[in-house]
Specification:
23% of the residues lie in helices and 38% in strands. With 464 residues, the chain is α+β, with helices and mostly antiparallel strands. Helix 1 crosses helix 2 and helix 4 runs parallel beside helix 5.
């Protein structure tokens, strides 16, 4: 039975068991996920799973409940409807129920690369081998993964949708002594992942990070590489452009206000890459401009938060949204001019292996004195309203003098307001070629360019 047939069958079961007055929405998703992991320069795990999940949400007699299951035979589907209906009868009244998504056209979404959808362990292993060979004797660890999803949506209002998506990602480190270098990439096609290029990049950064010196804490001009910028985008999405947090006045976002540098445009763009063209509530997904040339324009909404805000859903219904809110999952940072320098891609002759790419090199070349930062980790929010974040640098920090990385630097702890760091007059340069960075959550990714900022607040050593 296809995903479409399963979704329709559950809607009919709801009508039969709960009566014609019940409202129901059903999402059926088949996910084929495969992961090849390596450590100590050897593959140590290859795992794959294929599962079909049916999720039902129904509203009956003024009460709402949701349930899910993986048994798709008639008995399993009937049991799912019966237990969800029983849960609804025990729930408190839901006066804020926003109703079902009405029938509407749904875009077809990006084309799916069939080779990625059907990728074999050997094909992932070949990229791991290329990565390990390229680190040239250093210790290597990481993963290569592929994912394929197909699904269908149906509700009792007559709306339906179908979609397919595939992606591939690779994330690896190279280690020499006590220093690491990192390289990661997410793509629609496994063929676009060059394990050799990623391994060479990670190894060059690891070697360049040897013998780090300690610098005093303080505010430094910085160039952040895409991996570090992805952490900015992730936290902006979760804590800033989140419709639930905005409604609760826990977000910095002020639509209509100039909160960012004019060089900054942020777009949640799910159809820019392979992804399902509808959300959990069946709302068609589309590009949503969150910031345009420095001015905040919108936050993400599902049907419930959109009804409360009077704006409607932006296509961001998702599992758990009632708890942590609807949020952008495919955020792109784009350069839009202003006074910021746009990287030309010209590499300075003095640039060392510390620099991952030509955009980063161009931004570093314009810096008189500052720091080049590869990556952030263990970031935690101290003040959600101002989005003040503390965290650590990792995988390489370098002192830059007169446009050249001169010394590796020990890792720092930082405490910084992300919106403030990207505020008016603080963005000095952006790369032309954003790199899509994978997320730990399936279907999330962040398209991040290298970024030069006027200052970043480093508060102490990584162990402090």
């Amino acid at each position: 039975m296809t995903e479409v047939d399963l979704a329709g069958r559950v809607v009919e079961l709801v009508r039969r068991l709960a009566g014609p007055g019940a409202e129901a929405e059903v999402v059926v998703t088949r996910a084929d996920l495969a992961l090849t992991r390596f450590a100590n320069s050897f593959i140590h795990q290859n795992v794959a799973e294929s599962a079909t999940t049916v999720r039902l949400r129904l509203h009956a007699d003024g009460r709402t409940a949701a349930g899910s299951g993986s048994l798709v035979d008639p008995d399993g589907l009937t049991a799912l409807v019966e237990r969800t209906l029983a849960a609804a009868r025990l729930c408190p009244p839901d006066p804020a129920w926003p109703g079902l998504t009405p029938p509407a056209p749904v875009p077809s979404g990006a084309a799916v690369d069939e080779a990625t959808a059907a990728a074999s362990p050997d094909e992932r292993a070949a990229r791991v081998r290329a990565f390990v060979d390229a680190v040239d004797g250093l210790e290597a660890a990481g993963y290569c993964r592929t994912a394929y999803r197909s699904g269908a949506f149906a509700n009792s209002a007559g709306h339906s949708a179908v979609g397919r998506a595939a992606e591939a990602a690779m994330d690896g480190i190279a280690r020499t002594g006590g220093t690491d270098g990192v390289a990661r990439q997410c793509a629609d096609r496994l063929a676009d992942l060059d394990g050799g290029a990623l391994g060479a990049r990670a190894a060059a950064k690891a070697r360049a990070a040897a013998d780090p010196v300690e610098l005093p804490p303080g505010r430094y001009e910085v160039v952040l590489e895409p991996a570090a910028v992805a952490d900015l985008l992730q936290n902006l999405a979760w804590y800033g452009f989140n419709g639930k947090r905005y409604a609760e006045r826990q977000s910095f976002a002020e639509p209509g206000a100039t909160q960012f540098d004019p060089a900054v445009t942020l777009v949640d763009d799910p159809l820019h890459a392979s992804g399902l063209p509808y959300d959990l509530e069946g709302t068609p997904r589309r590009a949503l401009p969150l910031v345009e040339a420095g001015t905040t324009r919108a936050v993400a909404h599902d049907r419930r938060s959109g009804a409360e805000a009077g704006t409607g859903s932006t296509g961001h219904g998702m599992v758990g949204a009632s708890t942590f809110g609807p949020l952008p999952r495919n955020l792109r940072l784009l350069a839009t001019g202003g006074t910021a320098e746009v990287a030309t891609g010209q590499v300075s002759a003095g640039v060392s292996g510390a620099v991952a790419g030509p955009d980063t090199a161009a931004l570093v070349a314009g810096m008189a004195r500052g720091l080049l930062v590869s990556d952030f980790w263990y970031t935690r929010v101290l003040d959600p309203k101002q989005l003040v974040v503390t965290g650590l640098t990792r995988n390489g920090v370098w002192l830059v003098e007169d446009g050249v990385p001169t010394r590796a630097v020990r890792d720092f702890r930082f405490t910084e307001s992300y919106p403030r760091a990207l505020g008016p007059g603080r963005v000095l340069g952006l790369g032309r070629a954003p790199a899509r960075q994978p997320d730990r959550v399936d279907g999330f990714w962040w398209e991040a360019p290298a970024l030069r900022l006027a200052s970043w607040n480093f508060t102490g050593g990584a162990s402090g």
